[in-house]
Amino acid sequence: MLIVFFIMVVGVGVGIGVRSIPPFRHVGKWISGVIYFLLFLLGREVGTNDQLLSSLSTLGIQALLITSGALVGSIFCAWGIYKFLFQKDER
Amino acid sequence: MKGSLIIVGFFVLGVLSGIGDVFPPDFFSMHASQYVLYVLMFLVGLSIGYDKELIHSLRQTNWKILLVPIGTIIGTLLGTAVIGVFMPQWSITESMAVGSGFGYYSLSSIFITKYKGAALGTIALMSNIMREIFALLATPLLVRWFGRLAPISAAGATSMDTSLPIITQYSGRTYVVIAISHGIIVDLTVPFLVTFFCSF
Questions:
Q1: What is the pLDDT of residues A38-70, one digit of tens each?
Q2: Can you tell me where the transmembrane regions are (chain A) (predicted)?
């Protein structure tokens, strides 16, 4: 975990250093490209793991139920906090 | 919408290539993907440093940021408790223990397998992978429908690493600090809350 932060801090430093170089405007597109690649790898990991694939039926439904509860609850809280505390500060 | 579809497309493509053994098993190991994640974090850092206005807005952070992880934790625990009421196989606290993984599937599933057995451990693994996948896939829609904090809360502990790039893209770079501090705080609570809810 520490190494990830270190790498990001190095990235911030490099980013400050290259502000005058226009091609770095497109860094958002590079990020999208890497995200797509990582998602492909994540999918491949699921696809090659027979245990993950076969147990997705029974335990998977229970997992899906718990996940939906967790997501609905946390998204609802986030929506409330955003609406009442963050939104009015924007622009 | 287009963003989410492209993301789903790449994920499905990956699953299909895995099932069909399109690539040799050692084509791209998880060890190698770790380095891709490092490249990603470097690029995210680069985009933060490159943005002049961002560093200015970071100086204006305040106590409100702390409310975001608190909201995520309370919302998740309430939501999983409600689901637990309706699940005959598992108790309310067992459901909450799974929810307490907050997307941190490697750690929480190990804990839960140890305390509650492999079945609930497997559920924890899948549930928290689902949470991460959902945050990655639905972020564009979550921002549109529920505001810029929704993907951060949905991502749980992963808002500071795997989900951070996509949150940066859709919530905006001004929310990077919130996403990172949220991830750190939620991440720290995982071992405590998981073991706490397993103790019942």
A1: 778 767 877 777 776 776 678 889 999 999 999
A2: 59-82
Flag if B95 and A66 touch (Cβ within 8 Å): yes
Domain boundaries, chain A: 26-53, 57-91
Average pLDDT, chain A: 83
Helix axis angle, B118-146 relative to B105-116, nearest 10°? 140
Report the residue from A24, A25, A38 with minimal CB separation from B40.
A38
Q: CA-CA distance, B112 to B95, in Å (whole number)?
A: 11
Angle at A70 between CA A89 and CA B77, to 5 degrees: 90
* Domain range list for chain B: 67-200
Residues in chain B: 200
Residue B167 near residue B143, CB atoms below 8 Å: no
Longest dimension (CA), chain B: 54
- How far apart are the CA of A57 and the nearest CA of chain B, in angstroms? 11
Token pair for residue B16? 């299909």
Q: Quick check: A37 pLDDT over 90?
A: no
Residue of A nearest to B180 (CA): A5
pTM: 0.71
- The sign one gets for the Cα dihedral B82, B86, B92, B95 is negative
Spatial contact of A32 and B4, defined as CB atoms under 8 Å apart: no
Measured at the CA of A49, the angle between CA B76 and CA B116, to 5 degrees, comes to 45
